[in-house]
Amino acid sequence: MLNADAAELDKFGELAHRWWDPDGEFKPLHQINPLRLDWIRQQAQITGARVLDVGCGGGILAESMAQAGARVTGIDLSPKPLKVARLHAMEAGVQLDYREVAAEALAQEMPGQFDVVTCMEMLEHVPEPASVVQACATLVRPGGTVFFSTLNRNLKSYLLAIVGAEHVLKMIPKGTHDHQRFIRPAELAAQARQAGLAAFAMAGLEFNPLTQRYRLSADASVNYLVACRRV
């Protein structure tokens, strides 16, 4: 069975035409992308590396990594965002490859073929996140680096990421997230270990409603990023 939620794919598909609007529904992704790209580059060499972006959507991170000199493949199961990603890359003159394929299927096709694998803001949208973690571990070469980002599951994350971001500040559309699908860092670390990955770095991502800016911090209580190495 495909490890995907049809409602989630449809939800992001219907917003695909807004993906590259910096003031639209995906404004937070545009705001955090420089932060997460810098953090990725601090933990791994991506210039000249073969990089896979799992759950690439409209290609914001994938395209920025390609512009940084990586040889990027982006995969997603929602065709509309992929069309937007391909068109934007063509207009921007950026060379990268987009494919409509599941991470688990690509893992069978191309095991150990990537130096770096990124899976950002995706795990909380799939029925079986551990399956995606395992696929990412299979896709990266031994010694390679895998990056995940997701949301912690606790009262604070519910109040800030759902009540605050979706209902009060209206930063993202209502229904974007399901709090029950959020993943605690210890749970993600356990899934990574089971897949043969060793976490070696973590960072929190905080939003200041007064300045309307994000910053990286040591606070992983809401949004957080994890870097793992395939052992």
TrEMBL record:
Gene3D superfamilies: Vaccinia Virus protein VP39. Keywords: Methyltransferase, S-adenosyl-L-methionine, Transferase, Ubiquinone biosynthesis. S-adenosyl-L-methionine binds at R36, G55, D76, M120. Pathway: Cofactor biosynthesis; ubiquinone biosynthesis. It catalyses: a 3-demethylubiquinol + S-adenosyl-L-methionine = a ubiquinol + S-adenosyl-L-homocysteine + H(+); a 3-(all-trans-polyprenyl)benzene-1,2-diol + S-adenosyl-L-methionine = a 2-methoxy-6-(all-trans-polyprenyl)phenol + S-adenosyl-L-homocysteine + H(+). One of its GO terms (molecular function) is 3-demethylubiquinol 3-O-methyltransferase activity. The keyword S-adenosyl-L-methionine applies. It is an enzyme of class 2 (transferase). It comes from the Bacteria. One of its GO terms (biological process) is methylation. Signal peptide: none annotated. The keyword Methyltransferase applies. It holds the Pfam family Methyltransf_23. Its EC number is 2.1.1.222, 2.1.1.64. HAMAP family: UbiG. Belongs to the methyltransferase superfamily. UbiG/COQ3 family. O-methyltransferase that catalyzes the 2 O-methylation steps in the ubiquinone biosynthetic pathway. NCBIfam families: UbiG (TIGR01983). This is Ubiquinone biosynthesis O-methyltransferase. It comes from Ideonella livida. The gene is ubiG.
